[in-house]
Write a structure and sequence with these properties.
alpha/beta, six-stranded mixed β-sheet, four-stranded antiparallel β-sheet, 29% strand
């Protein structure tokens, strides 16, 4: 199974939101890193056919003998294979969580017996079973996120697009949802966009980095972390010098060590003093090096 983007481009007048994106997705979890305006949501909206592309192709190959077929030509056959959780929360707020999921299952033409089994499982794993009869309008933001995730996974989709799936969740819920996404990823293509770098780092097979509408790099978490092995230093800093350091370098963290203030700086041009960080590099360092301003 493959999902292939070829020279995919989206323009709004003179502004290019997505610029000649070319990438092939195979089963696995792809974390998508990028600041606001990087093109993440634009790419997802093109994959779900919510907006029209300016140019390019999106080909889906479900082990067919004919190779990839454009999703616009596949139409409903691709939509049946797709699960989508948007970032924006839009609900029928008068519906209960259970009614909403049965309604979505009906729209997806999922047989009632299958829908019942799936809804029970999804409500349980997202910790919504006890509030299934509560109206969505009374849900907290985090509860709404979990209901959105449930509807995206109805019908056992082969391609799952998750835009900020853990936004608004407390740490315990976030870990629960993160583990569930990882457990159900076998044989699926999962695209996961989030600002919570630790979520991506812990479950992604590969991470793609986007900036100003372009794909600027892709690799496993380990490969990306290793790529900044000589780009991170920690050094002591007098409190009165902190503003100067922050103006000159990308600062990842400010912390106390043995009663002194230390800073963690990332970049190609690093201070002469301080010490290179070797044993606790993270995806946060990768983000700041490649995507931080």
């Amino acid at each position: 199974m493959k999902l292939e983007l070829k020279n995919l481009t989206k323009k709004y007048g003179n502004f290019t939101a997505l610029n000649n994106m070319t990438i092939t997705f195979e089963p696995g979890i792809y974390g998508i890193l990028g600041a606001n305006g990087a093109g993440k949501s634009t790419m997802m909206n093109l994959l779900t056919d919510n907006i029209d592309r300016t140019k390019g192709e999106i080909l889906f190959d479900d082990n067919s003998a004919n190779g990839g077929v454009d999703i616009l030509k596949l139409g409903k056959d691709f939509r049946k294979a797709l699960g989508y959780m948007p970032q924006q929360q839009g609900f029928y707020e008068h519906m209960t969580a259970q009614t909403f999921l049965y309604y979505m299952a009906e729209l997806k033409v999922i047989p009632k017996k299958q829908a019942k089994s799936e809804i029970e499982k999804l409500l349980a794993v997202t910790n919504l079973s006890e509030v299934r009869h509560k109206k969505l309008g009374g849900f907290s933001g985090g509860m709404k996120q979990r209901a959105l995730l449930c509807q995206a996974l109805l019908g056992d989709p082969k391609v799952v697009i998750l835009d900020e799936p853990t936004a608004g969740l407390d740490p315990k819920e976030r870990i629960r949802i993160r583990n569930f996404i990882s457990s159900m990823s076998r044989g699926k293509i999962i695209l996961l966009a989030t600002h919570i770098v630790s979520d991506i780092e812990s479950i992604s097979d590969r991470i793609m980095m986007m900036k100003k509408g372009k794909l600027i790099g892709i690799g496993t978490p380990n490969e990306l972390v290793e790529s900044v092995a000589d780009k991170v230093k920690e050094l002591p800093c007098a409190p009165e010098d902190l503003d100067k350091i922050q103006a000159q370098y990308k600062v990842g963290n400010v912390f106390q060590r043995r009663g002194e203030t230390w800073v963690r700086v990332i970049g190609d041009d690093l201070p002469a003093d301080g010490q290179y960080v070797k044993d606790h590099l993270s995806l946060e360092d990768v983000y700041l090096y490649y995507l931080g301003e």
